């Protein structure tokens, strides 16, 4: 499988920090987003860039990004050729980011940029990924809160990897983890799941998810359902196993039906042909489900193979710890592991 070359990251990592923001019809949010991000980044006193990705907006988002980029050398705008959706817009921004550390957040300021210094401090302590954990969600409908809560719990239970509950795409990652993320060639990208899958030292920082500042959610129910489907199928082959479980159940039922049929044949003198038809139906529907289940198992394996993910990721080696291959741009890896 060939790796998409546009996703291999930038070679020269001269910047200390990048902030990546996917924007879809966010013209109203941009001024405040820009000023708050600038204030936070300036306060850190490190060279930084703001990568704003316009995901095929139909409003003035790109004009505003372009005008502000002309005035602010820290701002780097990327305009996608059409709307590709939140997860791909985010991936495009991550691919364009040049920083040693990269923070990603939504344009609507639901994730407060002011959490960045705290996230940076956790990373200084040796963590590779610092994610924002929503302890409360303000200004969202009961429906959104309930479905989101249910979604995170179901996906956590079914996924092959521990995906932290109530954690979105608001996180700070270091270059090592980001490059590993960009090297994952799968095309359906459930970003938060992929970062969970990557492992390394991860920690959460609690925050209260704010109401949307301007405009309305760009995630209608239809998109939320597709997003949940991508999450489930991207990180679990449980749905493909459904046929196998149904087959077991139907074989048990077929056995029970068989006993009943034989009993009625002897005791009740039933109509001729009834017993054989019922037995055949029960038995063969079980067999059909079983073969479907077997196909599902192989398909599941084929699917996992087709994603072409790395088999494992090495966090560090003893040679590295001794300084032989150490990355001088990274803080010492002495933080407690999770
Ligand atoms: N977004 C995007 N492309 C889309 C939909 C959304 O880039 O097709 C961006 C949007 O501008 C925002 C982020 O993704 O920065 C999250 O979207 P939104 O706030 O609408 O989602 P919600 O918070 O309601 O789940
Ligand atoms: Mg939002």
What does this molecule look like?
Helices cover 48% and strands 15% of the residues. With 338 residues, the protein is α/β, with parallel strands linked by helices. The protein has a seven-stranded mixed sheet, sandwiched between helices. Strand 1, helix 1 (30-44) and strand 2 (48-54) form a beta-alpha-beta unit. The longest helix is centred in the C-terminal third of the chain and has 34 residues, at 274-307. The two termini are 33 Å apart. The model is unreliable at 1-12 and 325-338 (pLDDT under 50). The structure holds uridine-5'-diphosphate (UDP) and magnesium ion (MG). Residues 22-24, 26, 55, 83, 85-86, 89, 106-108, 110, 217-219 line the site of uridine-5'-diphosphate (UDP). Magnesium ion (MG) is lined by residues 106, 108, 110, 212, 217.
Topology:
Blueprint: E1 15-23, H1 30-44, E2 48-54, H2 61-71, E3 75-79, H3 86-96, E4 99-104, H4 116-124, E5 129-137, H5 142-158, E6 167-174, H6 175-182, H7 191-198, E7 202-209, H8 221-235, H9 238-267, H10 274-307, H11 318-321
Parallel strand pairs: 1-2, 1-4, 2-3, 5-7
Antiparallel strand pairs: 4-6, 5-6
Helix pairs in contact: 9-10
The protein binds uridine-5'-diphosphate and magnesium ion (MG).
